Amino acid sequence: MGTAENDASADGNLAGSSVVALFKVIFHQQLTVLVRYPVNTASMFVTLVGFFIVIFFGGRAVAGPALTDSLDGIIVGLFVYTLSMTAYSGLARNVTRESEWGTLERLFISPHGFGTVMVVKSAVNVCLSFLWGFAILLAMMAISGRWLTVDPLTVVPLVSLTLLSVIGVGFFFAGMALVYKRIENVFQLVQFAFLGLIAAPVREFPPLRLLPLAQGSYLARVAMADGVRLWEFSARELGLLIATSAFYLALGYYCFHRATQRARAEGLLGHY
């Protein structure tokens, strides 16, 4: 009995260390892509900062001091948008890239399983999204001169929970990419949808809190603009965020799993 328990414990430790090794490999791969193509990486950063500059200086020229009232919301909104786009597009586009490179089928014969590989890729994307997000946030605050409250113990958990619903959406479209291949135009439409969800007026229309991103974006805005800490939010507010994030993550992964089964059954993995 004791030997069997020891064997099971050893297998569990081996599987855990194997997943950690997989995480390191994928993280290194993603980082290598960013470093190997510096122009592309820099253009992503410049585009997002340039977008904020246009809004900030353009809005100040048109609206004058009135822009100050909405400046906090704009900064937090773009911060959440940057994180969301990195987490979402990283997952959905990974499937497309692997198909183009002809390496998608290799992922299916990975000893970890295709689902585990994609979950680890999602975790890596979230880590990278924080690097991008905080870099953009720092740039926006420096340009505008408006320094928000950035408490890591509050902002990181709130944004991480918010990104779970985004990852669910990413899994859904990654599954679509497996079956339908070229859906880049749909990716772009989703990017616009994210902007609307982040700016959703959840105070005036509470049912909007049930949509992906909406509740988390609202709480992040309150935390960073008003200095509210994580434990000062009501259990109802946090419970709703956890429930909606878990729901969209589970739904997205379920759709991805079904799409994977269909792609394998119909022999679509090797076609692009």
What's the arrangement of secondary structure elements?
Layout: H1 2-36, H2 38-63, H3 67-101, H4 104-108, H5 114-144, H6 152-180, H7 184-198, H8 214-226, H9 235-265
Question: Top keywords for this entry?
Answer:
mainly alpha, 81% helix, single chain, 9 helices, 272 residues
Strand content: under 5%
Rg (C-alpha, Å): 20 Å
- H-E order: HHHHHHHHH
Secondary structure category: mainly alpha
Total count of helical runs of at least 4 residues: 9
Low-confidence stretches: none
Q: For the terminal residues, how far apart are their CA atoms?
A: 51 Å
Using DSSP, what is the number of strands? 0
**Overall 3D form:** globular
Main sheet record: none
Query: How much helicity do the residues have?
Result: over 70%
Overall mean pLDDT:
83
Question: Care to describe what's here?
Answer:
This protein is mainly alpha-helical. It has 9 helices and no strands. It starts with a helix and ends in a 7-residue tail after the last helix. The model has no long low-confidence stretch (mean pLDDT 83).
